[in-house]
Amino acid sequence: MNLTLHVWRQKNTGSAGRMERYDATDVNPDMSFLEMLDVVNEGLISSGKEPIAFEHDCREGICGSCGFVINGIPHGPHKGTTVCQLHMRHFKDGDELFLEPWRAKAFPVVKDLVVDRGAFDRIIASGGYITARTGSAQDGNNIQIPKGAADSAMDAAACIGCGACVAACPNAAAALFTGAKISHLGLLPQGQAERDRRALGMVAQVNAEMFGTCTNVGECEAVCPKGISIEVIARMNADYLRASWKDRGARKESGE
Amino acid sequence: MKLDSRIPQGPIETAWDNSRFEMKLVNPANKRKFTVIVVGSGLAGASAAASLGEMGYNVKCFCFQDSPRRAHSIAAQGGINAAKNYQNDGDSIYRLFYDTVKGGDFRAREYNVYRLAQNSVKIIDQCVAQGVPFAREYGGLLANRSFGGAQVSRTFYARGQTGQQLLIGAYQALEAQVATGRVTMYPRTEMLDLVVIDGKARGIITRNLVTGQIESHVADAVVLGTGGYGNVFYLSTNAKGSNCTAIWRAYKHGAAFGNPCFTQIHPTCIPVSGDYQSKLTLMSESLRNDGRIWVPKKVGDKRSPSQIPEDERDYYLERRYPSFGNLVPRDVASRAAKAVCDEGRGAGSGETALGVYLDFAESIKRLGRSTIEERYGNLFEMYERIAGEDPYKVPMRIYPAIHYTMGGLWVDYQLMSTIPGLFVAGEANFSDHGANRLGASALMQGLSDGYFVLPYTLGNYLAANKPDSLKTNAPEFAAAMDAVKDRSKQLLSIKGKRTVSSFHRELGKIIWDNCGMARNAEGLRGAISEVRALREEFWKDVNVPGSEGELNQQLENAGRVADFFELGELMCLDALERNESCGGHFREEYQTPDGEAMRDDENYQYVAAWEYKGEGNAPELHKEHLEFAYVHPAQRSYK
Amino acid sequence: MSPAAITGGSGGTLRFFESTIFKKAVMASTGAILFGFVTAHLLGNLQIFVGQDRLNEYAAMLKSNAEILWGARSILLFCVVAHIVSTIQLLRVNRQARPVAYAKKNNSHSTLASRTMYYSGPTIAAFVVYHLLHFTTGTLHPEFSQADVYSNIILGFQRWPVAIAYIVAVGLLCMHLSHGVSSMFQSLGFSHPQHTPRIRRFARTVGILYFAGFASIPVAVITGILRAPIVHL
After folding, report:
1. pTM of the model
2. CATH T-level assignment (fold) for domain B266-403
């Protein structure tokens, strides 16, 4: 099959970008989307042009490196799939595809379809962990965790940090990502000691990174390759509101 | 070069405790005066960086990905072994040790493996404390499964995403240290050279992958946790970015390379579908617990699997290995698949028919679809996404693919390479797995090295090396930076006709055909000269577009592929030198009449440690003889 | 330090009142109060179908106690102001969060109601102003009578452009509610695998029923089901 691609080309963060048109010919339906782009790039290189930069690594849908917007949908039209596992059999001959990077102030474009998602790392550094000094842990079976709680924590922990939720959100909010981490750790007994601190720290960082606000429209959960539910956002809201309420007393004591 | 493995004396059960006691300690107030560079942020790198940061060292951690959370440890599916004996099925540290030595076909150090088995128990505790959501039973206790041919259930798992969850745990611990300022993270930064001063590893040269800037970093010790080199095969289950550059640069500075030919082929991967194929996808080998593997009995049978009646199917693993059946170790399962495909009995209608069926029909009938869905739902979905077929209805088609490299930089018991101050952890080193790694043991080794070995052994090294005032303005750094820049310039200036990928694909095919599942002397000799010729052509005819001072994925890749050529050659040389079959190394000349591997303990019970002797010179082979005082070498039998 | 180095979060402590989650909570709780008012208002209005006296008596009752009346009005006014101020603040944040728009964006996964909150909201606000000037103060009502609410409504809606404007406006209001009523639970941190889908269904039903209720009055006037007022002199 043959496709027409309109791809966002941008030299670096500082420069302006624009859409450019390319033809993808003889596309095999068993190819993955990235393999299709590999072939387009080989052609570009051979004809002396600069290949399209896109992020990718594991190509099996788990590292979270890849992702761009295909015809307005992050990771493309197939539900629960990252672009590296999106296969060309979901498209048809003659399709015209628009490829754009994740668009958010917090995710500046590095080049073409590559964006900088360092904001996610800083959000995790602001509380998205359980402090457990190496070697200080008790026996794993001393902490009993009901299967249901462990399963729900795992549902949230499945997040691959790809950023599709931000890309899909009309407000470029990072609520699904942040809520997923707050839920993963908050649902486990080990995560209780730092639960308030975690919510306060992570939400503060989200605001500092200039992400937008969740308006509960649900575009994020629809494109999440791991199917994470916006239930995690409600948990984040609850944790944050409760923590803030408790925190007022603590701040008074410390004179802040 | 003299290999001093620093294996402790005394009984194996107390050896690690005793050697820890004998190690020198760094005064708590002095720890911050030491800078440690950790390259790689996978299980080994991230856990080491986080632990060292916690202890108070000044840590700089580097990864080429945009975030440390993306390291390829994340893709491990099945699980992590630990000798907890929670299932009351007779497991113990000794049994895990025994199984690992035996599984490694008696080519690993006993003392290392015993320590690994001891640490396995602590790893689970540590990860649970960090919030890793391991699978639980209804009673709230940790669940286990049996995995990859083990006779006990000792594998802990988090759905089919165990590697992801363990890595996220280590990554979160790392980010917590980043927040305290004790660890500085350098994402999108690739190590391009090691700096050795006065015989000690003292720093690295990096390229900022966004700006192209070449930078120097000085340290008191360097840890490489940069993973394996499976991408030398081009098609592998490794991430596209996984590369050997860090360990190869270290090798060229004098770090011995251990057992480069020991590579592991994983039996359950999705077969290749076309020339454009960029990588192979592994499916957890846990699938073999309930799936039955078969091929048609008749050669060239192109019927669809549903049309092949039961009595015309050959369940060849069950036939050849009645007691282990479909659960034989990876190397055995992979070779058996190759053998039936070589006979022309491969599954599928394609020209090559490189594949065998993995059939769940019987399990679905016996256990019900919902049980199978619960166990393997995500794997089935993944298969359907890629292959476009529903495995609940049609048997999966699988074929072996390169998956893990047991070989790596040679390290002593303290994980230090032959360059003082250069430590190597995880898949990047050669230790612990011998000639074949058991399922669910890679995660165990990465975390054991990072959480529970390096924090002690690194301190032991640092305590004997006082901090000095070395800065990056030392002439050695300037020289190394110039060399790195020259190499980039050279790659960019060739402007030939072929793309980097086309060379990589060709290299991969040579290595896969001659140094893959089965090897022979003639093929290996041929491969060595082919690789050399291809390498020459690469340096004359590669086309690397773009410039140095920008994000240039082609340039990154070109540098990595250039190193793969050299490593590929060394792999073939090592395979040629080892005139026996053991584990993942199967030499066709050395097999029993019924096609099983024939080990030669008399002549080859050693670690092959290769020393670089300069461009154009043959590397020198050093042998570390292996002692087996506890597990006595026997032919592995899974019949 | 190299430009590539990433250090920990610098968000520091965020003041609770400045956080977007707090602002969403404000919108949710003020929205809840306003939803309560809309409910009461609808039930009050529907008394028009009982008869002129019933409606006028009800209106007189509401106005009988000035303290309660103005107390209620000030709470509602506060809620409206807080709801709008929070919206504007969040809108500003959200506009900044995506400086470069997509050339192509497909938002088909969310409901129309949820995506049009920023449009339905201001339209409703403008409508409320008109509505107050029309039926409460009578400023924009040519035949306004202080005591006869019933006549005001009938005479008001007999002008069909006014009736249509009302129908459109309550349509938008009900769309706004159909997202807002379920969204407020989410904003306040309540989510439940079983109950949340029920809440969403409830909110959609509310939207439809309330629209039917509100629109029934102008429709009844235009179609003549509600008759011209009897003038008491």
Report:
1. 0.95
2. Flavocytochrome C3; Chain A, domain 1 (3.90.700)
